Known about the structure:
heterodimer, B: Aminopeptidase
Amino acid sequence: MTVEEELRRHPAVADCAVVSVRTGSGGPKLIAYVVPDGEVTGEELRAYLVERLPGRRLPRFVTLVRALPRTADGRVDHRALPLPVRATATPSGGKGGDWQPSTGVAMAISAAVSAVAAYLLTDVLWPYSTDLSAVPPPWAGLFAVLYLFECAAFGLGVAFLLSGRTLLARLDRPPGVSAAAHLAITWLLAAWWPQDNFYRLAAKTDWPLQAALVYGFNVTLMIAAAVVVAFVAARPR
Amino acid sequence: MALRLRAARAEEAGWLSELAVRSKAYWGYEETFREELRLLPEEVAARRVTVAERDGRVLGFVTVDGEPPDGVLGMLFVKPSAIGGGVGRALYGHALREAGRAGFARLVIEADPHAVGFYTAMGAVECGPARLVARLVAWPPAPEPSWVAAWTGGRPAVHVGNVAEFNGAPPGPDHYACMAVFAGPLPEAVVLPVPVDRAWIDGLADELGWGEVEVHDGIAPDGAVSAAIGRRPALARRLASAPGPVLPWGRTEQFARIVPTPGRVLAAIARFESKRGAHELFRALAPDHPGIVVPAQRPVGSRRELRRELASGVPLVLKTEYGVGGSGTLILDGGTRRAGRRWARAGVLVEEYVPGSGPYRDPTFDAVVDDHGAVHPVGTGLMRVEGPRYQGVTTGPGVLPAELATTAARFGTAVGRALAEHGYRGWYDVDFVTDPAGRLAPTEINLRLTGPAAAHTLRARLDALRGGRHLVRALDRLPLGARLPPAALRGHLDEVARECRGLGVTFLPTIPVAAMEPWPYLGVALAARTADALDRAEAAVRAANEALAFTEVGRPRRRRPRPRRSSG
C-alpha cells in the first residue's frame, strides 16, 4: 500500500499528496501534504504512519495544508507547495534592516587576496624556486603558467577554508563528515603551492627531505581525496 | 436653504428640551423621559450643544459631554418632522469632528434601541447588548498631527526603499526595504529593490485607503537602489519632478544624485549616526534634563586595552561607531566575555552597561525636523529588544508610563533642535534604555526611518481614516514554520488577517518577501484600539506561523548516538 493510500484511510484526512521534493539541501525528500478533515495534528499522523509502514517507505515529513494547489489540468502543482525550513538557526533582526555578506563575494575577495599574497611571497619563502632564467622558450612560459595556477589554487583553498563551511552545510551531511570534508577540500587546493616549491628546491637524493615531503604532501593529499569520497557517500541527514 | 450648524445659545435650553421630548415620543415613548431630557441653560456651553437649523428654524441638536479623551455623545435629537432628512447625519458628523478637535479619542453613545441602526451606519460600533439602551462607541477623527504636514506637506509621497544603500550593506537582496512602503502615511508610488507581489500592495491600499499606488519593484537585486534609479532615466525623471515629496529611507550621497540633498544634511547624518557623535551630543544636553543619565563611553585604542577592560569583570557594552538595529553592539556579561575578544580592533567604543529590566526597558522617541528647522514630535514607542537586537515596537497612547514618555519626548526634542542647528532636516529617532531607578539613558540617534517610524506612520494613517487613537505594533521578523511560495503565502496571510479581524485587530504584512528564504520569516504590523487586543493578535499570528511547520516522520537509519556524559 502506498503512503497516500494509507493516509487516505485515516478518518481525519480529506485529501493528501505525497510528493518527492527538492528542498535545496541534499537529495529529494518525500513529503506528505495532508488536507485535514477535522482535528488532527502532524504528530498524530506521524505516529499513524510509523505504526503502519516500514521505515524505508516512510516519508521524511508530513505537514498539514489548507488545500492542495492544483494546476489548470487538476494535477498537484509542485512548485506552489510549502517547503520545510532548511535549518534551525535563529534568524537575526535589525531595526533598520540587516545583512549578511554573501558567501560568493566574500570568497572571491579572499581568494584573490590570498592568491596575490602567495604570488608575492613565493620568492621570499623559496628563493629561486621559480627562477626560469635557465629554461629555454617555449618551456619557460608553460612553467610560468603552472606557478600562476599554484598561487590561484592556494588562494581558492584559503577562501574555501574561510567561507566554505556554509556551502558544505547546505549539503546536509553529518557535521563530523562535513568538517573533515571542509579541511580535505581546502588541503586539496592549497597544498600545491608549498608542495611544488619545496620539491623544486629539494635535491633528488636528499632522502630525509624527500620522505618528509612525500608523507607531508602526497600521502595527505590521497587521504584528503578519500575524505571527499566519504563525504559524497554519506547520506544527507 | 442649506442646513446650518451652530453653537446653541443658553436661552434655547428650554425649547431644545421640548424638542428632545417630542423626538423621543416619535418612537411611542411616554413622557416619563421628560426629566432626563431636560437641558438647563447653564449647561449649554459645558455640554458643547450644537444645533442644526434651516431657514432660521431649529431642526435638531447634539451634545458632547465629558472631558477629553473619553466623552459621551449625550443627546442627539431631531424634530420628528425632519427625521430622515439628513439632519441627524449632519449633527453626528459635526459632533465627531468637533470632539476630535477638542481632543476626544472616544465617544460613548447610549442610544435608544431604535437608533442603533443609524449609529452603526455612521460607523459606531455596538459594545453591549441592547436592552433599555444600547451602548455604542464612536471614534472621533484625530486632528492631523503637525509632523504629518512637516513630513509630507499632507500630500501623497513617493517612497524609496534604499535601506541597504543607507546601511552600506554589501550587495544582496534587501527584504527590509519593504518597510519603506510605510515611509509616510500616504504613498502615491513606491520604489523597491526586491520584487513584490502586487496583491500585497493592493491589500494594504484597500485597508489604508491609499487609492492607486504606482509600484516600481525589483529594480535592484543587489540593494543599490539609487544606482538602479540612475540607470532608468524615466524613473529618475519621475522622482526628480514628483509633485509631492520623495521620501527615501535615509538620505545618502547616491540618492542625492537623484533628488538633491543639502550637504549639511549628509554631514549631520555622518556625524550623529556615529555612536560617538551621538554620545557627545547626549552629554552636552543631559545636564538640563532631570531623568536622563548618560552612560560613560570611550574609544578603545588597542587590543591590549580592550583585553584589560574585559578582564575587569564589569558589565560593558561594545559598540562599533556605525551599526544598524543592534548589529554593531555587543553586551558583555559573564558568559559572552570571550566573544568580546573578536571585537578588539581600532574604533571600538566601550560603554558602561546600564542595568535594568522590566516592561519599559527600551523606549524610543521619533520626530521630524521640518524645512525651517522646527522639531515636530511624532511620538514615543516601546521597543522589543533581544540582546542588542531590535525585534519590534509598540506605539500609541499608554504604551509608556506618562512620566517616561514625557522625559523621552523632552530630551528627544532637545536632540532634534541640536540636529537642526547642525543642518539636519527630516526624520530622526532617539533610542533609550531605562535604568532600575526609572531614569532614561539615551543610546543612539538614527537620522533616517526605522521600524518604529513605520509604526508611527501607520498609526497616523489609521487615526485619520478611522478616528480615535490606535496602537500599532510592528514585528519585523516573525519566523514562519515553512517556506511558502507566493500562492501559499497569500493563503496564509488571508487566513491570519481573518483571524485578527475576529479579534478586532487590523493585520498588515510589512515584509512579505522573505517567505522562501532558508529561514523564512514575515514582517507584520498589527493595529488595534487596546493593548490587550494586540497581545492576543500577536499570539494568534505566531501560533499560525508555527502551525505551518513540518513534522519529521522518517529519519534515515543512523547509528544510535552514544550516551553522552553530562557535564553537570
